[in-house]
Specification:
The structure holds three protein chains of three kinds. Chain B is α/β, with parallel strands linked by helices. Chain B has ten helices and ten strands. Chain B has one domain: Rossmann fold (3-Layer(aba) Sandwich). In chain B, strands 2-1-3-4-8-7-10-9 form an eight-stranded mixed β-sheet, with helices on both faces. Chain B has a two-stranded antiparallel ribbon with strand order 5-6. In chain B, a hairpin with a 5-residue loop joins strand 5 and strand 6. Chain B starts with about 25 loop residues before the first helix and ends with a helix. The model of chain B has no long low-confidence stretch (mean pLDDT about 95). In chain C, the strands form two sheets. Chain C has a two-stranded antiparallel sheet. Chain C has a two-stranded antiparallel sheet with strand order 2-3. Classes of the chains: A alpha/beta, B alpha/beta, C alpha+beta.
Chain lengths: ~375, ~280, ~100
C-alpha cells in the first residue's frame, strides 16, 4: 500500500462526492463523522479510505445527530471537521447546526440533496432543502450556503466552505444535489501551495484576559481551542462575551444581532455568482446547482437564435445576493427561475426584484430540466 | 473564620458564578465537589481536561467548572465529547450529565460510545426524574413513583443504568450515592486515569421535585436513607443491581476491565505499508 | 451508629486537628455537614445569612480531627478545614462567627 498525500495534485476523473472529500482534505479537514445515506454515502466512503492516509479520523456515527455534534466537538479541539448527509439526515442535523451557530464553531455540513419530504426519493435529485438550509434550525441567525454545479466546483467550493467557516466562525453549508454528487467529470487538483487556506483567528490575549465571544471590529471573536489553557466556557444558552449564560433581553439583543450582522455586514466578501451574457439581456435565467448547467445550454442555444438572454448563476445562495438580483430586475424584463422543487429560491428572487420585472418559476421534481424545456420557456417569454 | 475566606476548591470553580442554581438539599453540589476533589487529586494537567454536558440541572456543572467547558444540546454531550477526544487524544474528556439527558434523549449515543470504547469518562447523576422542567418521569423513574407526568404512579419499567453500561461495553462501571463522598471521589479519580469508556452513576437527591412528590422528605432525609439502605456489593452482576422505590440501593464497582479503545484500533497505514515492502 | 472499635495501636498515631472555616453567605442550609460530621462538631446556628438560611456553627472545635468530610459533602463550597496542630492544645475554643 502506498500512502497518498492530502492534496492529490493532478488531473482526475471523479464524481462530485469524491471531489468534495478531496476538497475537504486539501482544505485541512482531519475529522469526518457521518452516517450512511444515499446519495451522500460516497463522501463517507472516500473519507474512510483517505483519512488514515493523512493521519485524520473517520468515524461512522450512530446517527446524524451524533455526526453533527462530533464534528462540532472536533472543531472545538482545533481540528477542521466535516459531515455529509442528505434529506432526512439534514433534518436531524438541524438542531445542532444551531448549536454550531450559537457557539460559533467552524465546520462544514454537506447536503447532497435528494427528493423529499420524508424518505422521499433517495436515489433521485432534489433542491427541496434550500429553505431548510436558511431556516431549518429554530431561532434567528444567518447562514452561509454554497451551491456547486460540477465535480470541479465540489472540490473548489468545499475548500472555500472551510475558509468561510474558519473566517466567520460558523458551520457552513454546501447545498449540492444528487446530480452533482454522482456526476463524474474531470477534476483538476492544484499544487498544495496554490491552494488558498484561511485558519481561524487565534486569541491575542493571554488566558485570563481572553474572552471566547468578544468580537473584534469585524464582529468575529477569536477562537481558543480546548486544551490550550484558556479555560473557555461555552453554552448553547444565550450568553455574554465571556460565555456566561445571561438570561436577559439585553443579552439576547446583543448576541443575536451580532450573529446576524457578522454575516450581513460581510456579505460582499461572502457572496459569489457568475453571469453570462447579462449586459444586453432582457430575459435572465437565475439558477444554482445542477439546473444551472441546463440553463447555460439553454441560454447558449437561445442566444444563437438571437434572443437577448443571460444566465445569473448563484454559487452562494445564502446570504442571498439581494442587490445583484435587484440590479438585474431593473434592467431585465423577465427572470426565470428553474429549480428542482416546487419553487423556493424563486420567492427570494421575487422579493428582491421588488416588482421591477416579471419573475417566472420553473419547478420540476426528481429530474433536471432539459435545456430545451428551459429554451421553450425562453422562447415563449421572448415572443410575448 | 472570616467570610472572605477562599475555599480550596475555588481554584477549580468559577467562583464568580456562585451561588449555583441548585436547590437546598440537592445532591448535585456534593457530586460536583467530589468530582473537583478527584480532578485535583488525579494529578492530571487541568489545562488538558475538558468537561461536556447536555441539558438539565446536572448539565449546568460545566458552566461552574474552571476548565474548558462545553454545555451542549439535550442528549448530545457524548458525541460532542467523542469529537473532542478523537480530534485531540491528549485531552481528558469528562461528560457530566443527568439520567434523562444521557439515557432518554441521548441513550443511543451512550450505548454506541460504550460499544466503540471511546476513551471518555461519563458521570451520570441519577435523581430519577427531570428536575429542571419541574419533575417529570424519565428512563430511570422507579415503578409507581409519582411525578408531574405520572400522577397515578409511573407505569413504565426503568433502566438499570449500570446494567445498560455493562451490556454496552463500558470498561469501568461504578455506582455510588451522593453520600458516599470518599468512595465516589476515589472512583472518579480511578475513572479519570483509566483508559476507555468509563461510567459512574451517582444516586442523588432531588428534594424539590422527586423527593417531595414521593414523600421522601428533604435532601437530608434522602441522604439518611442512602446511609441506611445502601449496600456495597463489589463485583456482582450488574443485572442484580436494579433499583426500586423505597428499596435497597446496591452500590459498588461492578466492572473494571481493559480492552483496546477506538483510537488504539485505528488502522496504521504506515506500518502496513512497511510490511508490504518486505 | 456505634460501628467503630478503638484501634489497638491508637497510641502510635497522632490525631490531626482542624480549624473549620465557614463561608456563611454561600450556605443554603442543607445541614449535610452537621448530620454527617463523624465527630458531631457542627450545629445549626440561630443566625441568618444573606440568603435567609441558618448556616452551621462550630460547637466543638476541639473535636474536629480534620477529616474534611464536611468540606467534601458541602454542595455550596461553603465550608472547609485547615489542619491545625495547635488546636489540640487550645481545646474548647469558642465559636467566632
Amino acid at each position: 500500500m502506498k500512502i497518498k498525500p492530502a492534496v492529490l495534485t493532478g488531473v482526475h476523473f471523479m464524481n462530485g462526492d469524491y471531489a468534495c472529500a478531496e476538497g475537504a482534505l486539501a482544505a485541512g479537514c482531519r475529522f469526518f463523522a457521518g452516517y450512511p445515506i444515499t446519495p451522500a454515502t460516497e463522501i463517507a466512503e472516500a473519507m474512510s479510505r483517505r483519512m488514515p492516509h493523512v493521519g485524520g479520523i473517520f468515524i461512522q456515527m450512530e446517527d446524524e445527530l451524533a455526526s453533527m455534534n462530533s464534528i462540532l466537538g472536533a472543531s472545538c479541539a482545533g481540528v477542521k471537521s466535516m459531515t455529509a448527509t442528505s434529506g432526512p439526515g439534514f433534518s436531524l442535523m438541524m438542531e445542532n447546526f444551531g448549536l454550531g451557530i450559537m457557539m460559533e464553531i467552524p465546520c462544514v455540513l454537506v447536503n447532497i440533496q435528494r427528493g423529499g419530504p420524508s424518505t422521499g426519493l433517495p436515489t433521485m435529485v432534489g433542491q427541496q432543502d434550500m429553505m431548510q438550509a436558511r431556516w431549518g434550525s429554530h431561532g434567528d441567525y444567518e447562514v452561509i450556503a454554497l451551491t456547486p454545479s460540477s465535480p470541479q466546483e465540489m472540490f473548489d467550493y468545499t475548500i472555500k466552505a472551510f475558509n468561510l467557516s474558519e473566517k466567520y466562525r460558523l458551520p457552513v453549508l454546501i447545498m449540492s444535489d444528487e446530480i452533482v454528487g454522482h456526476m463524474t467529470e474531470r477534476v483538476v487538483i492544484p499544487n498544495e501551495e496554490d491552494i488558498f487556506i484561511i485558519n481561524r483567528k487565534k486569541p491575542k490575549n493571554k488566558p485570563g484576559k481572553y474572552l471566547m465571544f468578544q468580537p473584534e471590529e469585524d464582529l468575529i471573536p477569536c477562537m481558543a481551542n480546548a486544551g490550550e489553557g484558556y479555560k473557555v466556557i461555552t453554552t448553547g444558552l444565550t450568553h455574554d462575551e465571556r460565555g456566561y449564560p445571561d438570561m436577559s433581553a439585553e443579552a439576547q439583543e446583543i448576541l443575536i444581532t451580532r450573529l446576524c450582522d457578522k454575516i450581513r455586514k460581510n456579505k460582499d466578501d461572502i457572496i459569489e455568482y457568475t453571469v453570462f451574457g447579462q449586459d444586453d439581456a432582457e430575459i435572465i435565467i437565475a439558477a444554482y446547482g445542477s439546473p444551472a448547467r441546463s440553463a447555460l445550454s439553454a441560454v447558449s442555444l437561445a442566444r444563437k437564435e438571437g434572443i437577448k438572454v443571460g444566465l445569473f448563476r448563484m454559487i452562494t445562495v445564502w446570504p442571498f445576493p439581494e442587490e445583484k438580483v435587484l440590479e438585474l430586475a431593473t434592467r431585465a424584463r423577465v427572470i426565470i427561475v428553474p429549480e428542482i422543487n416546487k419553487g423556493q429560491i424563486v420567492h427570494e428572487v421575487e422579493r428582491c426584484s421588488k416588482g421591477r420585472c416579471q419573475v417566472i418559476s420553473l419547478p420540476k421534481l426528481a429530474r433536471i430540466h432539459t435545456p430545451y424545456e428551459i429554451l421553450n420557456v425562453i422562447k415563449e417569454v421572448s415572443n410575448s | 473564620m472570616s467570610q472572605n475566606d477562599i475555599h480550596p476548591m475555588d481554584k477549580l470553580i468559577r467562583a464568580d458564578r456562585m451561588p449555583h442554581i441548585w436547590c437546598s438539599g440537592c445532591g448535585l453540589g456534593t457530586n460536583f465537589s467530589c468530582f473537583l476533589s478527584a480532578l485535583d487529586q488525579s494529578g492530571l494537567d487541568i489545562d488538558k481536561c475538558v468537561i461536556v454536558s447536555g441539558i438539565g440541572c446536572t448539565g449546568r456543572i460545566p458552566g461552574y467548572t474552571n476548565i474548558d467547558s462545553y454545555h451542549t444540546t439535550h442528549g448530545r454531550a457524548i458525541p460532542f465529547a467523542t469529537g473532542l477526544k478523537l480530534a485531540n487524544p491528549e485531552l481528558t474528556v469528562i461528560v457530566f450529565s443527568g439520567d434523562g439527558d444521557l439515557f432518554a434523549i441521548g441513550g443511543n449515543h451512550f450505548i454506541h460510545a460504550a460499544r466503540r470504547n471511546v476513551d471518555i469518562n461519563i458521570i451520570c447523576v441519577n435523581n430519577f426524574n427531570y428536575g429542571m422542567t419541574g419533575g417529570q418521569f424519565g428512563p430511570t423513574t422507579p415503578l409507581d413513583a409519582i411525578t408531574t407526568t405520572s400522577p397515578y404512579g409511573n407505569y413504565e419499567h426503568p433502566f438499570n443504568l449500570v446494567q445498560v453500561a455493562a451490556g454496552s461495553g463500558a470498561v469501568y462501571v461504578v455506582r455510588w450515592t451522593s453520600l458516599h463522598v470518599r468512595r465516589l471521589t476515589n472512583s472518579i479519580k480511578e475513572a479519570l486515569l483509566k483508559k476507555g469508556f468509563t461510567f459512574i452513576e451517582i444516586i442523588s437527591p432531588c428534594p424539590t421535585s422527586f423527593g417531595r412528590r414521593n414523600k421522601l422528605g428533604d435532601g437530608l432525609d434522602e441522604m439518611k436513607y442512602y446511609q441506611k439502605y445502601s449496600v456495597i456489593r463489589h463485583g456482582i452482576d450488574p443485572k442484580d443491581a436494579d433499583l426500586c422505590l423505597n428499596g435497597k440501593i446496591v452500590v459498588g464497582k461492578f466492572i473494571d476491565v481493559d480492552k483496546p479503545t477506538f483510537l488504539d484500533n485505528q488502522p496504521d497505514l504506515v506500518s502496513m505499508a512497511e510490511k508490504n515492502k518486505k | 451508629m456505634d460501628y467503630w472499635r478503638k484501634p489497638l495501636d491508637i497510641d502510635k498515631y497522632e490525631i490531626t486537628h482542624g480549624a473549620i472555616h465557614i463561608i456563611i453567605d454561600r450556605c443554603k442550609g442543607c445541614n449535610f455537614c452537621i448530620e454527617f460530621c463523624p465527630k458531631k462538631v457542627l450545629e445549626v446556628s440561630n443566625e441568618f445569612n444573606v440568603k435567609g438560611y441558618h448556616p452551621p456553627m462550630v460547637a466543638d472545635q476541639a473535636g474536629c480531627v480534620a477529616c474534611k468530610l464536611c468540606e467534601l459533602i458541602c454542595p455550596e463550597f461553603a465550608i472547609y478545614v485547615t489542619e491545625d496542630k495547635h488546636m489540640a492544645i487550645s481545646k474548647k475554643e469558642p465559636h467566632e462567627d
